Amino acid sequence: MQLRQHPLPSPTPGTQRELVSLHYGQAGQGQKVYIQASLHADELPGMLTAWHLRRHFDALEAAGRLRGEIVLVPMANPIGLSQWWLQSHLGRFESLSGENFNRHYPEHIEAAARHAEPRLGADAAQNVAVLRAALKTEIQAASADTELKALRKTLMLLACDADVVLDLHCDAQAMMHLYTETPCWPQCEPLAAYLGAAVTLLATDSGDNPFDEACSQVWWKWARHFGDRFPIPQATLSVTVELRGQQDVSHELAAKDAQAIVDFLIHRGVIAADGAPPPVPAPVGDARPLAGSMPIPSPVGGVLTFLREVGEEVKAGDVIAQVIDPITAQVTDLKSPVDGLLFARDTLRLVTAGARVAKVAGREATRTGKLLGAR
């Protein structure tokens, strides 16, 4: 394993942070897998899972079982890790700009296509190599004049040429669930089964360019751009893995999730099996449109109490929670707008008017526009 340090530009004199990446296997040999944890720095289950993955990868490399390259970034957001206010960790948004750490990744699709086109042809594998090289060149040449931009650039340089990208996150309180782009679903389905995902939410360009889509959308956009002129496969499977809720930080869960990821990589051929390869389990959940995942807002502020648990199937009109005004004694029912799976809910119990307190995954696409919350 090689440990590499990536210094970020100092935002003020006397301060500097760095990103650390761990590199296993041999670059250019077989498939490349990129895994990062806690891009939202206050979402900690991924960090513990990364620790368990590191133990696996150390042993697998020593045993000569790696058939590809694996890059592991165990703490993907040193900026967010440093943001504290009166013992409260604020790791989702950069305090300087207010921007979400998992949004607004720069797009270089058109420029890379323009520079790669003279070298594209009838060989799909060669086209993948040419486009990856062009994309990496464009990312490398892009300016990054702030610490946040430099972090985004560094992460994309590590991930943009990978066959598999796993971005480890979590929700507030939730079931295991995944987000991926619709063209990635055939490749993602075994991962969902190994992880026991309750639901996988699919979209094609959900809005604001989160990290996972920045890695995968280049391929279907290039395929659309070139049309029938050149064969362009969906060469990157990129998935946001939501490792349940923020409090689900235990060795038991992290070890289970790390083993599931290793099993998936054996299934992909990145890791050589020790005996019979682990079979793909029967799926726990299914895939549903992200446009059918309905947030449940509260029209009023007050004390929030839930009447339904995460993991329950609910019907349209079912009361999910109530918001109570202690002064007026008014009770406001919060109802599910659709039939679906209550897969995530908030941990706060004092809510403000307009706050989104839960999410129900329906089976039909009903929303349009930007599909992700928290800018």
TrEMBL record:
Needed cofactors: Zn(2+)
GO molecular function, one term: hydrolase activity, acting on ester bonds
InterPro entries for this protein: AstE_AspA_cat, N-alpha-Ac-DABA_deacetylase
Pfam families reported for this sequence: AstE_AspA_cat
Domain named Succinylglutamate desuccinylase/Aspartoacylase catalytic: residues: 29-267
Keywords recorded for this protein, A-Z: Hydrolase, Metal-binding, Zinc
Name of this chain's protein: Succinylglutamate desuccinylase
Species of provenance: Roseateles chitinivorans
